[in-house]
Amino acid sequence: MSCGEPHETDCSEVLDHLYELLDHEIPDSDCTKYEDHFQECSPCLEKYGLEQAVKKLVKRCCGQDDVPADLRAKVLGRIDLIRSGQAVPEQDITVARPETADTAGRVPGHLTES
């Protein structure tokens, strides 16, 4: 995407790093560069504002849910495997524990296909 106007920092570069900017995962010098870009480029500023609003909405709606400890451990274990360069198993992470599913494998309170 580009607004068609010349900028010191290209629109595509700004948008490529938009989520890092929203998550405060980039150096301050880059933050300043992108914020300067937003002051002169309304399409990029609009995209930034939209993504910022979505992030706030998700946090407000979903940020209070506790992550089950076993799921957290599985995810962190996979991240460690990936970082170490080891092979990652292709098995699915199950949603329901066996003790919560009935004999047909259905989870109480969840919709099933008929």
From TrEMBL:
Where would you find the membrane-spanning parts of this chain?
none
Record's protein name? Mycothiol system anti-sigma-R factor
* Phylogenetic lineage: Bacteria, Bacillati, Actinomycetota, Actinomycetes, Kitasatosporales
Q: Which NCBIfam families match?
A: antisig_RsrA
**Domain Putative zinc-finger residue range list:** 11-44
Q: Where is this region: Disordered?
A: 92-114
